[in-house]
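Researcher: Good morning. I'm working through a list of sequences from a screen, and I'd like to move beyond sequence-only analysis. For each chain I'm collecting a predicted structure so we can compare shapes side by side. This is the next one on the list. No need for commentary yet; just the structure.
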Amino acid sequence: MKLKELIFHPPLNQNDIRTKEDIIWLIEDIFSIKQEEFCFNYEKEIDEKKFFFYWDQLKNIPIQYLLGYGYFLKHKFFLNKNVLIPRYETEELVLKVENIFKNYQEISVLDIGTGSGAIIFSLEMFFKKKGVKFYGVGSDISFLALEVANKNKNKFNLKSELILSDVYQNIKGKFNLIIANPPYIKEGEYVDYRVKQNEPHLALYAKNDGLEIYEKIIKDASLYLLDNAIIALEIAPEREEGLKVLLKKYLAKTNYEFQKDINGFTRFLIIYWNR
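Model: Good morning. Structure tokens for this chain:
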């Protein structure tokens, strides 16, 4: 099989969960041919057996878990089935936060449910590059997730602390920013097959109609926030009304706004804490 056959006649059917982007990723990874070099290698013979060994597995396993890494804001993070695969929506959340704090000279951040550390480490790298004094904490209830985060911390030579904690349980100090992409899928809600079979349920599902962790974060946030701080949360569009109830209950005098993602879905909750 020549490379051009794979590129121009991809082995995809109409309902295939796999994508042409997966094909490009596999070619880059297992044959070490960068996408920008494809045009110079169209006649190159590809090991068909090797390609389909990986390609067939993608029916059941996301490519990030198959290859052991994924990209978040152009940074390459180690990943495995003990952590969620970072999504584009979460990249949007981080970019929003970077813009909010772009003129700060010093910032402290708590990332609740850090998983691979993609959020906290991306923020540290961004602010470090800008010369901002940065103090970060990434917490997670899963020791196995923190092992992955620690591997990424060492890879990028970063300083953010990693703490085993159920939300605020083992957290000390106060922060300019609390950020989280917590579990928000409620029992019985549809979940893509590959997500359900591969990604950690601890990071996907939450009790109380998907609001359990949001309530924990919002209820006690005042104990961990500095003056004029921000809480930035990724949400499911279906959780908006339930979150309004929680905000009215615990942060009635606090300003907040729900924001849409690039696809027009309500995906973010930004809470402005003033004291």
